[in-house]
Amino acid sequence: MFPKFRILFRSVVFHPSYLFWESLPTGRSNDGREAKELLETVDDLLSQSNKLLNSISRRIPSGQLETFEFKYTELNLMVVDVKDDLKEREQKRIFFESEEEKEAFQSDIRKLLQQCEVYRNDVVTASRRVQANAPSGSTLEETSGDTASQPSSQAESQVSPWLSIVADTASQGKS
Where is the sequence biased in composition, kind Polar residues (predicted)? Predict the structure, then answer.
């Protein structure tokens, strides 16, 4: 009885009491949903890293802090670019024009996620170093009996290797 108008990807149903959109299966919602989930993970990693970095910012060398802040800003700008690209794609009729384009987009997001994971791990490593070098009486290690009896050379040997983003920055500067 009521007219039904079809648009390419959605249909509008007119009804006396309300108007609603009825989604048709297109596959694009899955692509966008996956990208959004990965971006949420990236946002969480960056947020955790920033909180941790803020908590140790007064206790790490200024050069190291500047490197972390630079990398944090760089990663956030990359996230903004991907989010803008995602918004543009959501407004298109076709989310990806080819399978290659889809694979490239997903690869870029996964690389960003991997870079954020490395950054987070570097911040955690720096935080642990700061905690290990904290003044006596302020670390949990000194309150446990077996860890407090370790010689300082053993405690230093347990520290993780140097930070990957600092090494990356140094190697880029030499090139």
Answer: 129-161
Residue 57 and residue 66: Cα distance in Å, rounded? 10
What does the pLDDT look like over 92-112, one tens digit per residue?
878 888 899 989 998 999 999
Residues 6+ apart with CB under 8 A from 50: 72
Please count the other Cβ atoms lying within 10 Å of the Cβ belonging to residue 29. 12
Q: Token digits for 46?
A: 């960056």
pTM, full prediction: 0.62
Residue spans of alpha helices (H) in the chain: 28-56, 62-91, 99-132, 145-148, 152-157, 164-174
User: In angstroms, rounded to a whole number, what is the distance separating the alpha carbons of residues 67 and 175?
Assistant: 18
d(CA 116, CA 130): 21
Determine the average pLDDT of the residues in 45-73.
94
